[in-house]
Specification:
Blueprint lengths: L1 H21 L3 H17 L3 H17 L3 H54 L10 H18 L3 E7 L3 H8 L1 H19 L3 E6 L2 E7 L3 H7 L1
Antiparallel strand pairs: 1-3, 2-3
Helix pairs in contact: 1-2, 1-3, 2-3, 3-4, 6-7
Length: 217
Amino acid sequence: RQTEDIMDTYELLTHVYNVFEAYGEVECQKKTLDLMAHYAATIDIWKCRSQYNKLKIRYYKQTDNKEMLFEAYNEYYELQQQYHNSFMEQRRNNLRLRKQIFEDVENTKNKIHTLEALSETDMLTGIANRNGLTKQVEKWMPIATREQKELGVVLIDIDRYKGYNDHYGHLQGDICLKKIAEVFKEVVGDQFCARYGGDEFICVFFAKTKEEVVSYM
């Protein structure tokens, strides 16, 4: 609020200076400039300093004070350079901020994508889990309905897996499930397979006839 008040004061003083200039009140013009100089010495607002500097140039041209006019012009160019430097620095900061925001957004997207993938993947076998199965069916079902294509579904459980797991232990049982998942993934190719739970697997076939589905098995 203080900055806004000072800027308002500068606008008022500029108006006062213009009135004095119109009536040729040189001494009053100088007093107005001195008052503006007081503010300029205590604050660092570029717009106010620039306005004060422009009035000084007008004043010293009017009074034909070449030495002070030269100094006022030097101050003018210094202010312009400061403004340019400040503008460029702000621009660089904005670019760095935009780059950081973009990177943060991309990192967040990647993390979300990774979490989504993990939520749809069976951690043991690396193929889809029930969540992944649901998502795939939701993707294929509208297409199959619209294009009048068939969806083939095969549910498979591993015979005597419990006995194998009990006899050889859970570690070997897990290895067995991984190998079976690799086989299913290789056999179905561009179709879809998932671990339904325990020793149960499910394969989904898009736009395949019953005979074609059987041939995969």
